[in-house]
Write a structure and sequence with these properties.
The chain is mainly alpha-helical. About 50% of the residues lie in helices and about 10% in strands.
């Protein structure tokens, strides 16, 4: 099996001498072989964390990393053309339909969840339902954008935590959202709607302005006044954010 450099996922350019390229090739082949080996064990579950006994803990239905295994499967399909990867990845689509049915489950990680699953499926297969789901997710992510202060709020207040959680999450951004902006940029390219690009660019500029410190380190989170949009302070996440 010779795995070729893919187009959509933009694998890192191999540089250096031939032995280094061969090691990369061998490592990639081992990854593909491991995916094939573990597919019967994993089934329709989605691994989250590897455990000391070499098993996994698995994602719940709305986990922020619920699409990561699907993303690996779509990559493997593109690299190999093996339909078993297509079937395993597509069988997970119900998970993403369910996320869109539950507003309380939706936060800034819609970008992670749908870029690695439905956007990948649309670009690799042209499936219209996958495209529609991804565009709906992008629209939901866009709803989190606060145009006055130009940021995307990371999390939701949940009644189970009461006012303490609300106080923590309202007006709070997180540096991780930068990796969720890809969904908005894709939706802009797909639809031509300027509001998708404005939200992505606005949030990126706000992150650069307020989360990156003068010494080029960064805050993990930053808090804005949710009413006025005034920047308040940087900080670190609390267990209440999860």
């Amino acid at each position: 099996m010779r795995i070729e450099r893919n187009s959509y996922f933009n694998a890192v350019e191999m540089v250096g001498n031939r032995p280094n390229r061969e090691r990369h090739q061998q490592a990639l082949e081992r990854c593909i072989a491991k995916l094939r080996q573990t597919m019967p064990t994993i089934g329709l579950r989605n691994p989250k964390i590897g455990l000391p006994d070499q098993t996994w803990s698995y994602c719940g239905p709305f986990d922020w990393v619920v699409s990561f295994h699907a993303g690996q499967l779509w990559l493997a399909l593109e690299l190999t053309g093996d339909p078993s990867f297509l079937n395993a990845a597509r069988a997970r689509r119900a998970i993403f339909r369910d996320i869109l049915r539950h507003r309380d489950a939706q936060d800034h990680d819609l970008g992670f969840q749908f870029s690695l699953s439905c956007v990948a499926e649309w670009l690799l297969t042209g499936d219209r339902e996958a495209r529609d789901l991804a565009l709906e997710a992008a629209a939901r992510l866009l709803e989190r954008y606060r145009p006055d202060a130009r940021y995307i709020q990371a999390w939701n207040a949940r009644s189970i935590h009461g006012g303490i959680r609300s106080e923590f999450v309202n007006g709070r951004v997180i540096v991780d959202t930068m990796q969720n902006l890809a969904l908005l940029h894709w939706a802009h390219r797909e639809t031509g709607r300027g509001d998708f690009a404005e939200a992505a660019d606005g949030h990126a500029e706000t992150t650069l302005k307020h989360l990156v410190r003068a010494d080029d380190t960064s805050f993990h989170t930053f808090l804005f006044d949710p009413s006025s949009g005034k920047p308040l302070r940087g900080g670190d996440p609390s267990r209440i954010c999860g």
